[in-house]
Amino acid sequence: MQSKPTKHYGKWRIRWVDQHGQRRSEVFADRKDADFALRRLTVEAEEAERGLRRLAPVERTFDALAKEWTTTRAARKRSLKSDQSFLKVHLLPTFAGLKLSEIGPREVERFKAARTALHPNTVNHHLSLLISMLRHAHDIGWLATLPKITKYSIPSASVSFRYLRTTEEVRRFLSAAREHGEQLFAFYATAVFTGMRAGELAGLRWDDVDFTRGLVTVQRSYDGPTKNGEARHVPILEALAPILREWKIACPPAPEPGAARLVFPTATGTMRQKSDRLFQETLQRVVLSAGFRKRYIGQHSLRHTFASHWMMQGGDIFRLQRVLGHKTPKMTQRYAHLAPEAFIADRARLNELLPEPGNVVPIAARKPELPQVEADVAKAVAG
């Protein structure tokens, strides 16, 4: 470690070895500032050497973090392609070249200001990825302190989504699906009456369907884990049970002996993939034949339909959370506004606190007559 600052082209330079053993130097205009910085750095190095100070992270750039993220964490995620797209189009053009320690509230607000044309919920998705990446950087020792990043506040009831809004619309849709074949009817009816995601329906096996207990065990999406990585149980509603029983009889067998028998396989008994026509073109044919405009709903809209009608029929929102597989009530809360009659049964809940009509005790609010008041005052003065 250098003992004192040295002159350097009219200024003062200090040299030191940092906590990671790297030789560093810095130039100051004022000798006092150089002396102070050198003393501080000397103390920090000694504390780190004695184990009294946590080593400062090696400065890394956001570019390095993006590479680390896509090759480790994101590589194990179902949303790898989404992460790569968000990085390429939004995050890297803004934060590339910046050191991780330089990313703070001001830089994030600039990022948000440059995307006013996007829906706030879309920007929140980008910020969620940024937050997750910075938290990962902190976990692996690349970032000493996590910056405070504020996302847009979006009321749950304002989040828009498409769904079949009335009982009549649901019946029209399912009637049209029945006309397109038994499997399509069973598939779309299962989506409407369970709220399962497309991948969960594609990966569903008959071993997961327990008619005796009236439960479907959702434990995979396509051939991988569910979205939140956990299995859950979904009730087989009375409206759905006979539909599934009939479909099980007509369902194609497994592709080979010993293989799992899927509930909604392809014609050859194999699993449907994300690009399957059943989720897209075929669904839109059913939508049109039911008298709706094109793309009135999509496959995920059937999940929204289930949740919305669950609430409109007076279903419990916390049970709905478990059925849908949401880890927190926040996502489920978007459906709460669809149950305006939810409090009707609660209107009389505290009636017993009121006294019986015949036993009402009137509250006397009598005022003493003015002469009596004057007499009391005179008596008090005389005393």
Strand content: 5-15%
CATH architecture of the largest domain: Orthogonal Bundle
What Rg, in angstroms, do the CA atoms define? 33 Å
The residue-averaged pLDDT reads: 87
Largest sheet: 3 strands, antiparallel
CATH topology of the largest domain: hpI Integrase, Chain A
> Helical proportion?
40-55%
The first-level CATH class name of the largest domain: Mainly Alpha
Q: What multimeric state do the chains show? A: single chain
Shape type: elongated
- Strand order of the biggest β-sheet: 1-2-3
Number of helical runs? 14
**Count of folded domains:** 3
Structural class: mainly alpha
Compressed to H and E, one letter per element, the order equals EEEHHHHHHHHEEEHHHHHH
Give structural attributes.
about 375 residues, mainly alpha, hpI Integrase, Chain A, 3 domains, 14 helices, 6 strands, elongated
Question: Would you give an account of this structure?
Answer:
The structure is a single chain. The protein has 383 residues and is mainly alpha-helical. It has 3 domains: 6-49; 62-154, Tyrosine recombinase, N-terminal domain (DNA polymerase, domain 1, Orthogonal Bundle); 167-338, Intergrase catalytic core (hpI Integrase, Chain A). The protein contains 14 helices and 6 strands. A 3-stranded antiparallel sheet has the order 1-2-3, covered by helices on one side. Strands 4-5-6 form a 3-stranded antiparallel sheet.
